[in-house]
Amino acid sequence: MVALFACMVLLLIGFYAVVTKRNIIRIIIGFSLVEYAVNLFFALVGFKRNGIPPIITELGQSRSNFVDPVPQALVLTAIVIGLATTALMLVLAMRIYEKYRTFDITEIRRLKG
Amino acid sequence: MVELYVLLAAMIIAALVAIEIRDLLAAAVALGIVGFSVAIMFILLQAPDLAIVQIVVETLTVVFFAAVILRTTNVDGTISGAFRREMVFPAAVYGMFCVLFLIVVGRALAGLPSFGSPTMLVAGQYIALGLERTGAANVVAAIILDFRGYDTLGEATVLFTAVVGVLTIARRGGRKEKNGEDRS
Amino acid sequence: MRGMSPIVQVVARLLAGMLFLFGTYVVLHGHLTPGGGFAGGVLIAASFILMSLAFGSVAQTERNSYTFSSVVESLGGVLFVSLALAGYVGGAFFFQNAAVYGTGTPLRLISSGIILPANIAIGIKVGAGLFAVFLALGASRFVMKD
């Protein structure tokens, strides 16, 4: 229970960075923190005490002690997609810097044609 | 499970460092610390698939951040040492939102099965039928490629779209007009 | 993009080959051990990124590898969708696994129907896509003029 709460605290720290900070790189770091927190939350929900990983190694093995494999299947692709969206945001930040020479979002409000 | 709580404390401290420190490259390194702690937690939670993916993805995330920061600038010009008055109001509003959010989260988590004993209604079927129906010994691979293959198709599409977006935004030069002008 | 010092180049030459081999192993054994297409694909991309960082490149070779990797990524995606469409062959439905290919004997490398080719397709797609993203982010400024 405490572990799930700590995940939510990490999520709130990430949201704080997205909402309050003025530097674009910090906003992107905040988004990354939110994604890590959500993936960790899924893995925590599927945990079983004294469980073993859901991989069958011998044919006659007893499978009653596996941890839940469905949240792992959901998170597996989400991690790689998180990398791709972070890269998308980073390349946008790079283009913004090349045009305005600053990362500060309060100074890039004017739209240049 | 003392190791879980120690790692969670380290993650929260590293996250606070990552968003408050002045140097941007140090913030990227602190983000790397958070990511590797998440990978160790995946190993402790008996999820080796996720641990492998998280380690390599975290390395590439830090490499991408460093590539962008080293090409542009690594000084954060927006942080001044002084305490600014216009930061008090957003921080206070966000603090109230945090308290409300944590109250609602507490009620929601009370409805979940307790930590360490999931219900596994659907997963029980997948585990029991996995080896006979698909022949794969890795139950997670059987789930993402056979039982829930549509989700993987959708995620492959999302990945493709994100990569196409990156390659388009980073492209320089557009179609050239007849007199040789660039339209980017 | 500039290269790095000779020490880094010697070590990178050794490590990149092992990384590529390990990534291929993780992709191919995705149905037997932890890993699979996504983890192996990212490892393969990491081996190419290591070589590109350590040795640097000239603008022309960067442009060639950039177009080549984006073409390979599209081919990986097309391969994945065509494997899914192959479920129509035996009269079964979309993405059907064991009706078209047999499940094979468990715990062997060639088994489990469509999962092995699908892992290979995803590994190619993710690896080439992430290498193209790295070239777009960190490479020299004149690589994308078309």
Give the secondary structure arrangement, pairings included.
The complex is a heterotrimer of chains A (113), B (184) and C (146).
Chain A: H1 2-20, H2 24-45, H3 69-100
Chain B: H1 2-20, H2 24-44, H3 48-71, H4 88-111, H5 121-134, H6 139-147, H7 149-169
Helix pairs in contact in B: 1-2, 2-3, 5-6, 6-7
Chain C: H1 6-28, H2 37-55, H3 59-85, H4 115-138
Helix pairs in contact in C: 1-2, 2-4, 3-4
Considering the chains and any ligands shown, give keywords for the structure.
heterotrimer; A: 113 residues; mainly alpha; Helix Hairpins; elongated; C: 146 residues; 4 helices; disordered C terminus
Q: Pair with the most extensive interface?
A: A-B, 77 and 83 residues
**Secondary structure: helix percent of chain C:** 55-70%
Total domains of chain A: 1
What integer value in Å does the Rg of chain C equal?
18 Å
Overall SS class of chain C: mainly alpha
Low-confidence stretches of chain C: 142-146
Number of helices of chain A: 3
Radius of gyration of chain A: 20 Å
Q: State the shape of chain A.
A: elongated
Sheet with most strands of chain C? none
Distance, first to last CA of chain A: 52 Å
Strand content of chain C: under 5%
Helix and strand sequence of chain A: HHH
Number of domains of chain C: 1
Shape of chain C: flat
Q: Whole-number average pLDDT of chain A?
A: 87
Overall mean pLDDT of chain C stands at 80
The count of helical stretches of chain C stands at 4
Strands of chain A, count: 0
